[in-house]
Amino acid sequence: MDSMELERQRGITIQSAATYTMWGDYNINIIDTPGHVDFTIEVERALRVLDGAVLVLCAVGGVQSQTMTVDRQMKRYSVPAIAFINKLDRQGANPDRVLDQLRNKLKHNAAFLQLPIGRESDTRGLVDLVQERAIYFDGDYGDTLRYEEIPADMRAHAVDARAELVEYLANADEKIGEMFLMEETPNTEDIISAIRRATVARTFTPVMLGTALKNKGIQPLLDGVISYLPNPSQVDNFALKFQKNADEDTEPEKMLMVPDRSDKEPFVALAFKLEQGKFGQLTYLRVYQGSVGKGDSVFNTRTGKKTRLSRLVQMHADKMEDVTKVFSGDICAVFGVDCASGDTFVVERDLKLSMESIYVPEAVLSMSIKPADKKGDGNFAKAVARFTKEDPTYRVWFDNENKETIASGMGELHLEIYAQRMEREYNCPVIMGKPTVAFREMLTKPINFDFFHKKQSGGRGEYARVIGVMEPLEPHENTRVEFKDETTGTNVPKPFVPGVKKGFMDSCNRGQMAGQKVTGVRMRLQDGANHAVDSSEWAFYQASQSAFLDVCEEGIWQVLEPVMSVEVNSPQEFSSQVFSLINHRTGIITGQTGRDDWFTLEAEVPLNNMFGFSAELRSLSQGKGEYTMEYSRYAPASLETTDRVVAEWEKKQDGPGDGPGGKKKKKKN
Q1: CA-based angle 415:562:406, to the nearest 5?
Q2: Are strands 353-355 and 238-241 parallel, antiparallel or unpaired?
Q3: Contacts for 125-134 with beta carbons within 8 Å, 24 or more apart?
Q4: In contact, 328 and 287? CB cutoff 8 Å
């Protein structure tokens, strides 16, 4: 499935790839997604359009930090899942430990449906606990299945494991729970039905085993997908219907999509992924209702544009197969459609529908970027336009303050991959600057504001007064900005309130303490004053911005920095070096687990202190140590970091005490 040259070189998945397969009488649409946390948007949009998932775990590595991220994403979209423990044939494989981690780290109500026959390189087959039989995979590619009796030396273990499966099912399924309490023994059909009900309800996670490289366990896994995960007709998908001439505050009506594979209902589809191919932009669609055929015209509900679908294809990684018609539940791709990721398509122009959008996480790392050669500006612009459209987490923007182009993404690897793709695909080598961290500024205590804006220069003047309170939000909401209109009466007319809100929101784009975005702040507009002639939305916009600058001057502020969850795996002999490495980077150790000669260390470390960590870890552990890292939260920065960030900002200004507009700097906490 990894068709990109970079993916093969690095041995990782970078882009999600769609395919399909016929298994028996069933067509299964599959999307292979990356495991690395830097490419989390690929997992995000795949889970948005899929009805079930297979959570692939390594029998040696077990539950890692990115596994937790994917688990949170599955919860966000309520996607039921089967856990598949892969690489049973690797040295150090221990599926029992992985199951324990599923239960304790991810809090899944999980149990084995299979047991391995043999361990590591001696893995010969599987014991099917549901059907109570042994499965062997013969042939060079494990494509010939042979069913036999459970080996004599494993029968006692199989009986205990099946009893454990029933016990965990009893905690999740009412019918099996009643049989368990009545001390009745459920038959095979009862267990299969209960596993399906509990899996679809997300109260139970069936755990299956195998080794994909040798095709052992893959056929039973596909059977499990058919038996235990829902098909598109069994999942409720909703679209938001917007009323004509409704104001902004009116909640859209939720409409249930009809999943029948027929033409009875109007066509509705979601564009969840864009990709630049040799024939132009390729748009991946998930059809939620109705059907559409080659040559039909569809409307983008966001832009209102009409597009004729001259070609419909089904994808198999980087290969295409032309189709004439697609129905509800299908995943297809179309050419020549100008749209953005998350747009909804319908066949009826008046159908004002929108599928629920895809969650896009904030970028956590920024680096300056520029073409190595001035002649490459044209190709650089083309590459940026394409990559930012394909990947919403990759953002490129021009910093007027520093007069340089900045690329923002989910991590060092994310930005590095796009830099390499620019060179390979557009013949445009780029120079990446020093990474910069997305710091934030936050108010620590509530402060009142009262600003009177008056300007008279002949003709119509400007008149506005805003009174209220600016206060910090709760620590767990410190990445948000809120505006609350608490005014009563007509002192601040309602048509002018959006001007106050926009002035506040625009001011939050750059703080006065360290030039960073302001977050974790709520503006409560309580009162004000207006003039019958001179007041306008623009006057209140300016009054709001001036009130914000007053709060910057009078309030006490602090710098926030992104904190990462870091998981380090290393041989036990290097444990003291790894501990000192984390402590040296002001990390807080949150947990430690050990297995055989290896140990896993979990810690929270500021992102600003993680640069160069990979090289130092490899050096200390003779190349044996590895780590994973994901964004956790924003937290107050240390005094040293705050002083450095403020000093760097002041250095960029004309004078040490002058911010934009000649205002004083914020007070530091």
Answers
A1: 35
A2: antiparallel
A3: 125/216, 126/209, 126/210, 126/216, 126/217, 126/220, 127/151, 127/154, 127/158, 127/161, 128/220, 129/158, 129/161, 129/162, 129/165, 130/165, 130/188, 130/191, 130/192, 130/195, 131/188, 132/158, 132/162, 132/188
A4: yes
Q: What is the pLDDT of residues 569-603, one digit of tens each?
A: 888 888 899 999 999 999 999 998 877 677 889 99
Q: Are strands 556-571 and 667-668 parallel, antiparallel or unpaired?
A: parallel
Exposed, middle or buried by CB within 10 Å (0-12, 13-18, 19+), for 87? buried
Three-class DSSP category at 352:
coil
Q: What are phi and psi of 612, to 5 degrees?
A: 80, 5
- How far apart are the C-alpha atoms of 361 and 373, rounded to whole Å? 32
Give the ranges where 519-610 is alpha helix by DSSP (H).
537-554, 575-584
Helix (H) or strand (E) holding 590: strand 588-595
Q: Helix, strand or coil for residue 50? A: coil
For residue 378, the one-letter residue type is: G
The whole-model pTM stands at: 0.70
CA 284, CA 344: separation in Å to the nearest integer?
12
DSSP string over 626-647:
EEEEEEEEEEEPPHHHHHHHHH
In sequence order, the β-bridge partners of residue 369 are 432
* Stated length of the chain: 669
Closest among 441, 445, 641 to 559, alpha carbons compared: 441
Question: Is 328 in a helix, a strand, or coil?
Answer: coil
77-124 residue pLDDT tens: 889 999 999 999 888 889 999 999 999 988 899 999 999 998 888 888
